[in-house]
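Example for tutorial group B:
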C-alpha cells in the first residue's frame, strides 16, 4: 500500500483522483444492492397507490350510502314509528 501511495501515478493524479477511483469502485460493488433498493421502493410506492385508490373508492361509496340515509332521515322514511304512522294513515284513507 505504501508503494502504491508513493508511486508517480498517484503523485501526478493527486489524492482527489485516488478518492474518486476508490469511490467509483465501491459504487460499482454496491450497484446491485442500490438497484434492489430502488426496485423495492418502486414496488412499495405502487402498492401504496393501489391501496389509496381502493380507499378512495370505499370512501366515495360510504359517503353515497350516508347521503341516502341522510335523505331518508330528512324525508321521514327512516324512523319505524313514522313509517308505521304513514302506513296506518294510508290504511284509514283507503277505508
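The residue assignment follows.
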Amino acid at each position: 500500500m505504501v508503494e502504491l501511495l508513493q508511486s508517480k501515478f498517484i503523485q501526478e493524479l493527486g489524492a482527489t483522483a485516488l478518492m474518486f477511483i476508490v469511490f467509483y469502485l465501491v459504487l460499482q460493488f454496491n450497484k446491485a444492492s442500490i438497484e434492489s433498493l430502488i426496485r423495492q421502493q418502486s414496488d412499495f410506492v405502487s402498492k401504496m397507490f393501489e391501496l389509496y385508490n381502493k380507499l378512495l373508492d370505499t370512501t366515495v361509496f360510504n359517503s353515497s350510502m350516508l347521503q341516502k340515509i341522510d335523505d331518508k332521515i330528512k324525508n321521514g322514511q327512516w324512523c319505524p314509528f313514522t313509517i308505521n304512522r304513514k302506513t296506518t294513515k294510508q290504511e284509514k284513507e283507503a277505508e
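Residues 10 and 53 are 57 Å apart (CA to CA). Compare this with the pattern of hydrophobic and polar residues in the output above.
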